[in-house]
Design goal:
Keywords: Hydrolase, Manganese, Signal. By secondary structure, this protein is α/β, with parallel strands linked by helices. It has 14 helices and 16 strands. 36% of the residues lie in helices and 21% in strands. The structure holds zinc ion (ZN) (2 copies).
C-alpha cells in the first residue's frame, strides 16, 4: 500500500493511537490547521504545489528525482532526503513499523524487564543481517550499520512501558494487566527498526558507522546511564533521539537549541525530635514545628536565591507526622521534587534543599536526614541540546517536512534520561507530532487513554535515518 493510500485507509478505519508527558507551551493548532496537515485529499489530486508537497502526509512515494546514483549523496541534497522518504513510506517499511509497534504495545514490559521486547528487536536485526552487541544494561542492544569505522553517530530508542492500566479499547490493547506503553516508547522502537531497515538498504552510501541504541528503563532506573557504563557511546561523537508528542499534529517536528528539558530530582527528609504530651510541649522536641519552618524556608530558595531568568522549581509534596491529636510525634517525614535547566542550578538546588532542612531542624532543636535517592537512580540531569546538533536536526526536518512544519518549541519541566548521553557527547533531542483529533490521539503521555497516530511511524524512521546518514555524509 503506498503512503497516501495508507493514510486514507487509516483515516477511514479510524485507527487509533499516542504521546508525551511534557506539554508544549505553544498553542495547540485548531482543528482547521490540523486538517491542513493531515487532509488526504491533497494526496489524491494532481501534483501538489511545492508548499503542499513539503507536507509529509502528502509527499509522493515515487522514487527521488533526480535519481540518486551509485556515487551516493556526495553532497547532500533534497533528492537524498526524498530517497530516504521514499523508502520510509514504501509498503514494506510501513507494514514493518506498524506491526512491530502493535506487537510491543500489546506486550508491554517495565524497566529492566524488556526481555521479550529486546528479543523481538534482535530477531528483526538478525533478519536484516545487522550486527549488534547484547546485552547492555540487562536488556539493551547496541547495533551498528556502515563501514565499521569513524565517524560514529548514534540514534536511540527507549523500550520500557509504564505501570498503568490501559483504558483504550482497541485490537492491540495491552495484554498485561496494569502495564501499558503510555509514553510512546513502543513507537520509538518501531521507528528505530524502520530506520535500521532504511540504513541497511543504503549502507553502501554511509561514510562511517551508525550506532543504533535500544535502551531499557527510561521511565525509571536511569537506563541510559547504565547503557553508557556498558559501552553504548564507545567511539560515538554525536547522538540523537526522538519522542512523540500529542501537542503537535502528525507531521510536525519540533526541537530547540540549548536547554530543552529540566533536570529532575526527588528528596525525602526525616526530621527527628522527641515525643511528648501536646498539653506540655516543653517536655518534647517538636518536629512538626521544625518541619513546617523547613517547608516555608524551602520556598525561599527559588524566590530569593535563583536568577529569575533561570527557571527552577522546588515543590514539597508530602508531609507526614503523628496520628494522635494529643501527642507531639517523634518524627516528621516530608518530601518533594526539584527541577532546573542547567547542571549548575540543579546541583545547587540539591545542596540548598539539604542545608535548609538540616539547619531549620536545628533551629528547633531537631535533627534531620535528607535522602535524594541517588542509589535508586531517580536523579535526571537537564537535557541540553548542542547548538550544532540541534541545527543538524532542524536542517533534516525542514528537508523532510518543510519549513512550516518545523517548530522551535519552548523548554519544558518534564525530564528524560537522554540527558545522560547529552552530558557525554554532543546531542539533540526532538519531538515528532502525533496529534490527530479524528483518531483521538489528543491525550498526554502517561494517561491511560494515551493513543498515537501510527502515521508518525514512517516519518520517525525517515527522520532517524536521514539524521544519521546525513551526519556521516557531512562529517565523514
Ligand atoms: Zn514517559
Ligand atoms: Zn517517554
Amino acid at each position: 500500500m503506498d503512503f497516501p493510500r495508507l493514510l486514507v485507509s487509516l483515516l477511514i478505519s479510524n485507527v487509533f493511537f499516542s504521546v508525551l508527558f511534557f506539554p508544549f507551551a505553544e498553542p495547540i493548532p485548531s482543528a482547521d490547521e490540523d486538517r491542513s496537515i493531515i487532509n488526504p485529499s491533497c494526496c489524491l489530486g494532481p501534483k501538489p504545489s511545492s508548499a503542499v508537497r513539503k507536507n509529509w502526509t502528502c509527499r509522493s512515494v515515487t522514487p527521488a528525482s533526480p535519481p540518486i546514483t551509485d556515487s551516493g549523496c556526495a553532497v547532500w541534497s533534497e533528492a537524498c532526503s526524498e530517497a530516504v522518504l521514499g523508502l520510509a513510506s514504501g509498503p514494506e517499511t510501513v507494514e514493518l513499523v506498524r506491526n512491530i509497534r502493535r506487537k510491543i504495545h500489546a506486550n508491554p514490559e517495565l524497566a529492566f524487564e524488556e526481555f521479550e521486547t529486546s528479543k523481538l528487536i534482535r530477531d528483526e536485526l538478525d533478519r536484516m543481517e545487522i550486527s549488534y552487541k547484547y546485552p547492555l544494561a540487562t536488556t539493551g542492544i547496541r547495533a551498528w550499520i556502515g563501514t565499521g569505522g569513524p565517524p560514529f553517530v548514534a540514534i536511540r530508542a527507549d523500550m520500557d512501558a509504564l505501570p498503568i492500566q490501559e483504558a483504550v479499547e482497541w485490537e492491540h490493547k495491552s495484554k498485561v494487566a496494569g502495564k501499558m506503553h503510555a509514553c510512546g516508547h513502543d513507537a520509538h522502537v518501531a521507528m528505530l527498526i524502520g530506520a535500521a531497515k532504511i540504513l541497511k538498504t543504503r549502507e553502501h552510501f554511509l561514510k562511517g558507522t551508525v550506532v543504533l541504541l535500544f535502551q531499557p528503563a527510561e521511565e525509571a532506573g536511569n537506563g541510559a546511564k547504565r547503557m553508557i557504563g556498558d559501552g553504548a557511546l564507545e567511539n560515538v561523537e554525536a547522538i540523537f533521539a526522538v519522542h512523540v508528542s500529542h501537542m503537535h499534529p502528525t507531521g510536525i517536528i519540533g526541537s530547540r537549541p540549548g536547554a530543552l528539558l529540566a533536570g529532575c530530582g526527588f528528596f525525602r527528609a526525616v526530621i527527628s525530635g522527641q515525643r511528648g504530651r501536646a498539653g506540655n510541649p516543653h517536655h518534647s522536641v517538636d518536629p512538626i514545628l521544625a518541619a513546617s519552618a523547613a517547608v516555608i524556608s524551602l520556598q525561599g530558595i527559588v524566590s530569593r536565591e535563583a536568577n529569575p531568568m533561570d527557571s527552577q522549581v522546588v515543590s514539597v509534596t508530602s508531609f507526614n507526622g503523628g496520628d494522635n491529636l494529643d501527642m507531639i510525634p517523634d518524627t516528621v517525614v516530608l518530601g518533594g521534587t526539584f527541577r532546573a535547566f542547567s547542571n549548575t542550578s540543579f546541583y545547587s538546588l540539591l545542596q540548598r534543599i539539604k542545608e535548609v532542612i538540616v539547619e531549620q531542624a536545628s533551629v528547633f532543636r531537631c535533627s534531620a536526614m535528607v535522602d535524594f535517592f541517588e542509589k535508586e537512580s531517580t536523579i535526571y540531569p537537564p537535557t541540553v541540546n548542542d547548538e550544532k546538533m540541534y541545527e543538524h536536526v532542524r536542517k533534516v526536518a525542514i528537508d523532510l517536512v518543510g519549513p512550516t512544519n518545523f517548530r522551535v518549541v519552548p523548554p519544558m519541566m518534564g525530564a528524560e534520561d537522554f540527558s545522560f548521553y547529552s552530558q557525554v557527547v554532543p546531542a539533540a533531542f526532538f519531538y515528532v507530532g502525533i496529534r490527530n483529533e479524528t483518531l483521538g490521539s489528543i491525550h498526554t503521555g502517561h494517561s491511560p487513554y494515551f493513543i498515537i497516530d501510527e502515521d508518525v511511524l514512517p516519518l520517525g524512521a525517515a527522520a532517524h535515518a536521514t539524521i544519521a546518514e546525513r551526519y556521516l555524509n557531512e562529517h565523514g
